[in-house]
């Protein structure tokens, strides 16, 4: 585990303070961020291979995954439809073809990387004590790059504050997700702060899995990764089915991915009026993911 919460926050804050104007530099940072995520996920797989009683721990990972997924999803989906009743959002019914298969493959690629790391660790049967320190060092660099990405995402504080619906949707997701995390923690008889950390991924499965795995161990990290991945998959299924009747629900359940991965689906199925709401909601939740996870882990 990293030596202190300030050490983790420092690269994120430093990155956020850096404005970048040149497109080629931002593209380089985006590319390196994606590569670092793959490296850390592979290391996560290696760390899983180093667990004692692996088969038993895999069962615990799946138990944690489905308990948190069901608890958080139920809390989200009980609250979000009320927003559609109280404050409906107009949508467009014009739809275009989307590369859903390609999007699904992108998600599957990350699962494959973790699985490959696990397989390699099991086959090599070598000392894996170095994996934790290597993950921590790469994580610091990754957080620095993420800070730069958030600063240069094109969203200003004024734009966020003015889009009240995006802020409200993000607030509802925040509150109901944390409530779901508390419920799951009580059901699993684990510390409440661990449950709150697990509930703070909001669909950002790669970062949530990395941060929680580094702070709470491989079992929690694997469960966090799968929990948020299931959320994204369900969001991709739900958006085309619900967005015309329940747009706020579809956008909200997409969580942090509403500003990037699921945004094309939201725009295609819901129309251009849904885009600013999705971007603001997704941006706020993306910004909160590292902050909340690191805060709850430190308690």
From TrEMBL:
InterPro entries: LysO
GO cellular component, one term: plasma membrane
TM helices/strands, residue ranges: 6-24, 36-55, 61-83, 104-126, 138-154, 166-190, 202-226, 233-255, 275-297
One of the record's GO molecular function terms: L-lysine efflux transmembrane transporter activity
Keywords noted in UniProt: Membrane, Transmembrane, Transmembrane helix
Protein name: Lysine exporter LysO family protein
Organism: Photobacterium aquimaris
